[in-house]
Fold this sequence. Notes:
With 178 residues, this protein is α+β, with helices and mostly antiparallel strands. The chain has helices spanning 3-6, 22-45, 47-72, 146-160; strands at residues 12-15, 74-78, 81-86, 89-95, 99-109, 114-123, 137-140, 163-168, 171-175. Helix 2 (22-45) packs antiparallel against helix 3 (47-72).
Amino acid sequence: xxxxxxxxxxxxxxxxxxxxxxxxxxxxxxxxxxxxxxxxxxxxxxxxxxxxxxxxxxxxxxxxxxxxxxxxxxxxxxxxxxxxxxxxxxxxxxxxxxxxxxxxxxxxxxxxxxxxxxxxxxxxxxxxxxxxxxxxxxxxxxxxxxxxxxxxxxxxxxxxxxxxxxxxxxxxxxxxxx
Length: 178
């Protein structure tokens, strides 16, 4: 599909990530398991040790779970900008005019026996409280229909004259497309 053809399509495209429904189930199961173990500890040996265990375990899986859910959230591309949402709840948005840089880089994934591409989208100005360092938006190369996602982002890169960096073998270079 060419970039010219993109302008005649609907104004919003949604790209879903694989494993997005399994993520909350696995996180909920782990939190439930550790909550149960913490309850057993409190009821048998006393409150302080069990409460500390429970607090640490739920905090660890809560933070880990947030980043897991964030990585599985949908990417929504529109004429206005790019956003991330999870089951219809938008939690991160960036307008195209406020994008300073898009960086593509290889990410080694041991269980896949190789690398896939990761992407960071940096804003010109960081606005308010952000879930990611420097207010950036991140995603990896496991979206359904990844070639179309890349082509659509490249269309908006051309349209809004967004800077692009590609990292190959640890060396960053300017590019015109991701």
